[in-house]
Amino acid sequence: MNLAWSLGLAAATFLAAEASAQSTKLEARYRVTLAGLPLGAGGWIIDVSGNRYTMEISGRTTGVLSLFASTNAAVSARGAINGGRPMPSTFNLNIQSQRSQDLVRMALASGAVKNLTVEPAPKPGDDRVPLTDAHTRNVIDPVSAGLIPLGKNGFGPDLCKRSLAVFDGRQRFDLAFSFKRMDTVKSERGYSGPVVVCAVQYTPIAGFYHSRKSTRFMRESRDIEASFAPIAGTPFAAVYRINLPTTVGMAIVQATHFETTGSNRAERASRPDVAER
Distance between alpha carbon 169 and the CA centroid of its chain, in Å? Predict the structure, then answer.
């Protein structure tokens, strides 16, 4: 009896270790346009391994804009999966142009910011809404915010039933999602199938400037959309497309490649009826 129990425990331990070591990686590429004109291109890698995740985004300006304002961006986030939700531990942003550099380094624990470095520091101003310690608690970084749990009802309209308290190092804002429609997409490479389209309401909370027209424009806009596709082999979805109205036209971030690797069979069986090529 003791031998059987010991063998069973060893087998269970082995299987649990094997499952926790399984990793699913999403590799996506995006094209950015503004009013129909090429603006930029980027890549997004999401690695979900057991109860941990890492995310890396790289981007650069393209088209005519790159001739006048060449810019490169590197953004990353990592953290734990807690209660089925991403809980970030670090967020880093580095945007470099020919004339300036923008840096954010942030460490978090249990949804609260513990250490923060921002360069250059936000410019003081009478019209800037003060940012307090309370605004840096119970938050998520803007990259981890793009990893959306499927929830108990799986991939579908309920994906949009959520609000996120986001802090990017300079500004605290809310994103409220609501279901808009289902679409079907076909990537140049990778995912083809349904996406959930959510309407997004942006509400600035602190750290923003009242005088900036772009902030007022986004706050009043009712045309912001985010489309999500499932990450095969995980209980998550990721951003496939973003429609962001601006004062000079519609900005669109559109996935051209959306491929997953390393997912296990049991998890694949639970995903929606989609195809990857």
Answer: 15
CB 175 within 8 A of CB 148: no
Provide the residue count of the chain. 277
Cα 212 to its chain centre, rounded Å, is: 25
Cα torsion 149, 153, 226, 239: sign: positive
The predicted model gives 22-37 an average pLDDT of 92
What residues contact 165, with CB distance under 8 A and at least 6 apart?
A: 138, 139, 140, 172, 174, 205
CA 53, chain centre distance (Å): 12
Start-end of H helices in the chain: 2-21, 65-68, 213-220, 265-269
| pTM, to two decimals | 0.84
Contact 176, 201 (CB under 8 A): yes
Asked whether the beta carbons of 165 and 174 are under 8 A apart, the reply is yes
| DSSP per position, 140-152 | B-TTGGGEEE--T
| Span 108-134, pLDDT tens digits | 999 999 999 999 998 877 789 999 999
Structural domain spans, the chain: 24-271
What DSSP designation does 130 have? Answer: P
Distance CA 228, CA 10 (A): 40
Identity at 209, one-letter amino acid code: Y
- Dig out the tokens for 257 from the structure: 């490649």
Measure the CA–CA gap between 219 and 212, rounded to whole angstroms.
11
The 10s digit of each residue's pLDDT in 152-191 is 889 999 999 999 999 999 999 999 999 999 999 999 999 9
pLDDT of residue 151: 82
The pLDDT tens digits for 206-263 are: 999 988 888 889 999 999 999 999 999 899 999 999 999 988 899 999 999 999 998 5
